[in-house]
Amino acid sequence: QEDFADFTVDNFKSLGTAKLQQLRNFLKCGGVRVPVNDRQKTLPKVLSEVLLEEIQPNWTSDDFQTSYTILEKGPITSPYLKLKYNEWKATGKITNVPLVAIATPAPTESTLATTPHPVLPVNTAHSSTIQPTTVIQPTVATGSGRLITEVTRNYSDDQKYDGTNGSFDLKLIIFRSICDRVELPEQALARAFPVMLKGLALNQYFNNQLSNRSFDEACQSIRNFFEGPGYQRRVLDEWNSIDLESTALANPGKTIFEVIQLLINKLRDLQYGLSPSLRTPEFFHNKLIMTCQGSVTNCMITCL
């Protein structure tokens, strides 16, 4: 549940139908009861409501009936669900299903990885009902889920990275700043990482199952996909083409001091997209001097 604490209905909608169905199937096979969606309640709405459930509702015979195709295709990653599913197939009914607190993992992890698993009887070939020998204890959510929710509330859509709206490293600085503001622990950054993504970047996160990676590995994967050597060359070309005079012409009515400030702001934004070896204060300083050298007089005339 914490891994998706930041998700809203719109976040789920952005995944597209195929990804939503894959997520629903994964959750069901992991033991999470996801109600049937219809025209009145879409799948994004259903999934968002599942996130708000503190206690996982019991699976019923109807749930197994409507989920039969999904569970048969599997794989069922919840040992307890597998036991109850086998019981339902053998008897057509379900008994003694305990309520389980939701702790939904990221896709690729076992839903019940941190809880005791039921022990299968040695001989189950002719058993009409299968009873677990241990009871699954509700998992206790940590406080990081609440902090991740706070991170989400502090985020604006413009601050999120979609792969095309500026440098990833600049967006990452914003992300870390917001996380520091709410005092999110370093070890929870990986779980909060999807908060800073949207659009193509968020799709890339799920397509590559980055929830199973460390925070640094997930960042590097997104960075490499969207901002490889070709991207850095294009940024360098734009960096080299910027000069004070063209900036003044693009901003009529601005004073020379305002134009210089606009130029500095533009260079600072581009700096994060350069090759790391070029992101030095010296390189920035030299560019600023070369850009303004011999152009101030012309710009002053342009700005008059």
Descriptive key words:
mainly alpha; 304 residues; single chain; two-stranded antiparallel ribbon
DSSP helical segment count: 16
How many β-strand stretches?
A: 2
User: In angstroms, what separates the terminal alpha carbons?
Assistant: 59 Å
In what range is the share of β-strand residues? Answer: under 5%
Largest sheet: 2 strands, antiparallel
> What number is the mean pLDDT?
77
Q: What sort of overall outline do the alpha carbons produce when their principal axes are compared?
A: elongated
CA radius of gyration: 26 Å
Name the assembly state: single chain
Low-confidence segments: 96-142
The run of helices and strands is HHHEHHHEHHHHHHHHHH
Q: Percent helix among the residues?
A: 40-55%
Largest sheet: spatial strand order: 1-2
Number of domains: 3
The assigned structural class equals mainly alpha
Task: Write structural notes for this entry.
By secondary structure, the chain is mainly alpha-helical. The chain folds into 3 domains: 2-101, no CATH class; 144-227, no CATH class; 231-303, no CATH class. The chain has 16 helices and 2 strands. The chain has helices spanning 9-13, 17-29, 43-51, 61-66, 68-73, 79-91, 144-153, 168-181, 189-192, 199-207, 215-226, 229-241, 244-250, 256-271, 281-292, 296-303; strands at residues 55-56, 100-101. The protein has a two-stranded antiparallel sheet with strand order 1-2. The protein is elongated. The termini are far apart. Mean pLDDT is 77; it is low at 96-142.
